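Hi L.,

As promised, GNAT family protein:
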Amino acid sequence: MADLRPGWPVVLTAGPVTVRPPRRGDAGEWSRSRLANAEWLAKWEPTSSQSWSDRNTPQEFRRALSRLRAAARVGAMLPFVIVYGDRVVGQINASNIVRGALRSCSVGYWIDSSVAGRGITPTALALVIDHCLGRTGLHRVEVNIRPENHASIRVVEKLGLRREGYHERFLDIGGAWRDHLSYAITAEEVRTGTVLSRLESLPVPPG
């Protein structure tokens, strides 16, 4: 019988950045980070009937963890937390995994504002893309970003993802239907290396 969840669970590491499956013990740290970053994150999050504080408790994390693991078991997604040093500082998930002729997924992520600008998000995204296009056996990875999210656009452009399209009223975010830019990369585009090596080859900015 074919493996329904190739490539998961797995731990991916580059320098001080680790991407690994979430654990029940992450609940407290995850909740503290989310609650401290309400202003930073809420405007990018899906619309919810719950308040920010209610949907970011340790209990909610544990309930969500059960759903994430169930989806991973049937090969529908690869859920991860982002660890910097020894601290959980974000999440990154490869979702909407489709096999067959398409072999594609979409990736979404968030990062704690206290560690933004340190190259953590590009590194985590590069690790996940390389894993999806490699061991997981997918052909295409896409990332959908709101046009006003300039920081996230810089991340995908730095990694060499192509802008493929513009989706009007694509997702219900922050209480309204929001347009999104679609970026993607396929296995052929990294055949001679990895997305991570592409990132590591970029010049280090001065200062």
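The chain is about 30% helix and 30% strand.

Thanks again for sending the construct details.

K.
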